[in-house]
C-alpha cells in the first residue's frame, strides 16, 4: 500500500507531538513542580487537568496563602481588635500602657510603626506577640509626611524611612536600622513633597513614594539616593468624576517586584494600573489576574492563593459590612461590590486606623 508525501508528513508530525507530550508527562515531579510554581492560579488549574502527574505537580505548589487580619483601635484607645476574614471572628487585645493614644504610621510583616501626635518617639510594635522596639530620639517637627519600613525589626535588613520638607526645594530623609543608636540624615534638593496620605511601598530594595500630584519617586537606602522618576501620572478621569475625587480612594501595592496603583471612588468600579518603568507609564489593567489585594491606608497586602470561600481577583477594603461580620470587597470576575450597597466613605477610611496586617502562622495561639 503506497503512501503519499502529505500523509507521511502528517504521521511524522503526529508521532513527534506524541513524543513531546510523553516527555512532558514523564518529567520528574520536582521539575514539573518548579515549572508550575511560576503559573498564575488560573493557569495552574488548567494545567492540573492534563494528566495525573501534572495534577500532582500543580496541586503540590498550590499552597493556600493565609489572608491578613484587620486590626482596628477602639474608641477607648487602650485596646484594639483583630478581625480574621477567613473565620469572620474578632479578638480583643489590650494595648501596652506606653502606647495608649499612639497612632499607626505604617504596617509591614506583622509589625506596626507607631508614634504619638507631635512626639519625638517612634516605636515598632508587634500587636500579636506584644514585642516592642523603641527607636532613637527623633524630633518630629509636627510629623513626617512619608514614613515606612522595609521589613520586621527582627531582620538585619530592616530600614525605617522618614521624609519631610523643612524648606521649599529641599527634603530631609532620615533612616534607622536595628543596632543603630542614631538616625542617619540626608538632605536632597527636590520639589516632590505634596502629599495628603502616606503612599509608601518597599519593593526591589527601594522605597517607592507617590505624591498628591500622582508623581513617583524612589529612595535607595543602600546608596542613599533619591530620584523623582520620569513616569507620567495615570489618566484616571472618568466622565463627570475629576481626578482628585478618584484619588480619595487610592492605594499603592507591591507584589513580587511589580508596583500596582488601585484607584476607587464611591460605587464606581475600581481602576488598576501597573507600573511600567521601561515605557515610563502606568499601564491600565482590566483586573488583578490571580491576585487578591487587601487595601488600607497604612498597608496593602497582596495574596495569590486565598482560601476557597474568599473572592479571588478581588479587592478587600478595611471596612466591615453593617450587621454582618464580613468586609466590603470588589470582585473583578463578577464586576461588582460585595455587598452591592456598601457606602464606602474614603475620607473616614483614610483618617481611621483600620489596617490590614500580616498575621503569624501561630496567630490563634497568641490572641
From TrEMBL:
PANTHER family noted in UniProt: F-BOX DOMAIN-CONTAINING PROTEIN, TRANSMEMBRANE PROTEIN
All residue ranges annotated as the F-box domain in the record: 21-76
Species annotation: Arabis nemorensis
Protein name as catalogued: F-box domain-containing protein
One Pfam family in the UniProt entry: Beta-prop_KIB1-4
InterPro entries, A to Z: F-box-like_dom_sf, F-box_dom, Gal_Oxase/kelch_b-propeller, KIB1-4_b-propeller
Amino acid at each position: 500500500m503506497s503512501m503519499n508525501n502529505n500523509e507521511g508528513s502528517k504521521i511524522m508530525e503526529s508521532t513527534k507531538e506524541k513524543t513531546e507530550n510523553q516527555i512532558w508527562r514523564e518529567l520528574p515531579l520536582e521539575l514539573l513542580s518548579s515549572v508550575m510554581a511560576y503559573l498564575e492560579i488560573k493557569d495552574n488549574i488548567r494545567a492540573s487537568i492534563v494528566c495525573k502527574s501534572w495534577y500532582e505537580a500543580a496541586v503540590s505548589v498550590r499552597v493556600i496563602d493565609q489572608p491578613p487580619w484587620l486590626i482596628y483601635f477602639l474608641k477607648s484607645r487602650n485596646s484594639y481588635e483583630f478581625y480574621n476574614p477567613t473565620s469572620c471572628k474578632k479578638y480583643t487585645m489590650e494595648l501596652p500602657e506606653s502606647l495608649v493614644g499612639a497612632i499607626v504610621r505604617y504596617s509591614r510583616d506583622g509589625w506596626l510603626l507607631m508614634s504619638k501626635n507631635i512626639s519625638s518617639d517612634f516605636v515598632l510594635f508587634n500587636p500579636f506577640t506584644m514585642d516592642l522596639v523603641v527607636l532613637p530620639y527623633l524630633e518630629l517637627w509636627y510629623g513626617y509626611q512619608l514614613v515606612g519600613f522595609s521589613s520586621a525589626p527582627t531582620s538585619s535588613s530592616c530600614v525605617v524611612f522618614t521624609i519631610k520638607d523643612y524648606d521649599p526645594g529641599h527634603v530631609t530623609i532620615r533612616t534607622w536600622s536595628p543596632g543603630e543608636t542614631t538616625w542617619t540624615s540626608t538632605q536632597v534638593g527636590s520639589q516632590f513633597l505634596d502629599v495628603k496620605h502616606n503612599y509608601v511601598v518597599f519593593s526591589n530594595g527601594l522605597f517607592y513614594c507617590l505624591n498628591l500630584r500622582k508623581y513617583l519617586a524612589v529612595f535607595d537606602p543602600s546608596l542613599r539616593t533619591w530620584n523623582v522618576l520620569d513616569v507620567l501620572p495615570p489618566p484616571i478621569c472618568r466622565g463627570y468624576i475629576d481626578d482628585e475625587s478618584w484619588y480619595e480612594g487610592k492605594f499603592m501595592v507591591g507584589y513580587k517586584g511589580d508596583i500596582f496603583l488601585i484607584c476607587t471612588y464611591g460605587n464606581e468600579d475600581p481602576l488598576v494600573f501597573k507600573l511600567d518603568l521601561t515605557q515610563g507609564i502606568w499601564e491600565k489593567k482590566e483586573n488583578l489576574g490571580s491576585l487578591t489585594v487587601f487595601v488600607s491606608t497604612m498597608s496593602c497586602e497582596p495574596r495569590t492563593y486565598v482560601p476557597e470561600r474568599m473572592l479571588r481577583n478581588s479587592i478587600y477594603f478595611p471596612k466591615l459590612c453593617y450587621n454582618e461580620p464580613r468586609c466590603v470587597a470588589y470582585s473583578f470576575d463578577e464586576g461588582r461590590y460585595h455587598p452591592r450597597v456598601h457606602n464606602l466613605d474614603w475620607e473616614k477610611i483614610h483618617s481611621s486606623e483600620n489596617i490590614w496586617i500580616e498575621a503569624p502562622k501561630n496567630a490563634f495561639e497568641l490572641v
